[in-house]
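Budget justification note: compute hours in this period were largely spent on complex prediction jobs such as the one shown. Inputs:
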Amino acid sequence: MQLEAVVRQLELEQLYTDYVHCLDGDELERWPDFFTEDCFYRITSAENYEAQMPLGLIHATSRNMLKDRVSALREANIYEPQRYRHLVSSLKIVDEQGETLDLVANFIVVRTMQEGDMTVFAVGRYLDRVKHQDGRWKFARKTVVLDSRQIDTLLAIPI
Amino acid sequence: MQLEAVVRQLELEQLYTDYVHCLDGDELERWPDFFTEDCFYRITSAENYEAQMPLGLIHATSRNMLKDRVSALREANIYEPQRYRHLVSSLKIVDEQGETLDLVANFIVVRTMQEGDMTVFAVGRYLDRVKHQDGRWKFARKTVVLDSRQIDTLLAIPI
Amino acid sequence: MQLEAVVRQLELEQLYTDYVHCLDGDELERWPDFFTEDCFYRITSAENYEAQMPLGLIHATSRNMLKDRVSALREANIYEPQRYRHLVSSLKIVDEQGETLDLVANFIVVRTMQEGDMTVFAVGRYLDRVKHQDGRWKFARKTVVLDSRQIDTLLAIPI
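Corresponding output:
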């Protein structure tokens, strides 16, 4: 492994680190900033993904749509005192074209209910494309592929 | 990212790696050595943490208090054949003052009972301060913030 | 930490990353390639491991035996629509002899059933020996030590 690859790997891991702390800290207003303006974001199940079914639980084709999503979540104002905790592992560059990289990583999200019950809320893969823009890595595409076809939530939240 | 930052990130990740293998291997006698002499250690819930409630499940203000804690756990001699397994992810430096760093990391702890049942025992964040001392990083402060207000244990154990 | 150690750590982490994506992607035919020809592979429980009981859920003493295992799994042709997702953390070099390294790492595997139920399938440690061979790291020994004595599966699968 070259030093340049080491540095890049660490930078990418920090991108995911920042991303999950943003979500787990419920700082959703910062969430769209992780994406490029013309980004693609989707949450789908492995089953649908493999069957090439286009839609998903969330399907957005621009950063503005992600901002709208956050507004909708805030306005819905559903009293959801749950907490989410992401763990990410096994980040790998699977393809690269100049400063555009395709990545895969595994994740698990544990949800804690107000009374204290903890359950595995979601597990799966991130299938992402990142670009180096304005001195940092941003998601040009993020496909969240859930292993489960079911997700126990009233209103789809970012993962 | 600079090379110096890469090296430091890896050193810090190794600190957490050593820390969790110490706990998971039930080598509690080595546990206080991860801390400075005048350390602060606390386990609390996210709810209490946000409400700035001072106390917690464990609250220690020196390494000697951590040693006392280990002695108490050993003397209690409760037959607890459980095993604990920590996974840590998303370690990030959030502030730095010279050789003193403030860190955050996510964790999950799975407990396995003697009969084989596995459950999510704890999830949450480490909010830590480390110092470089005698050629290695040590915890000057470690605040274990559990997402859940409940923890299913008779006797609070280090996390 | 020296730069050489940083590079090696990242290479080893990538080895585990590749390994788990191979398993989670059900690309079992590629799985034996992660091992040396005269490898040792074993899945056992912590209880048996500590009691130095030799056998385990799987016990193989060559790469060819791993290939046979994969063939058996494919031929059994049991309709098992589960998905497995590994998260690995806290990888550490515990010993080194030239280009042969002894490693430990923690893992959790979450299984998702066809209907969508997610459960913690396995947690434990990898106790591994790797060798640098033909320009890459390979497992000369892999001992999968499960925290639980029970594993809920009809046919033992690679972990």
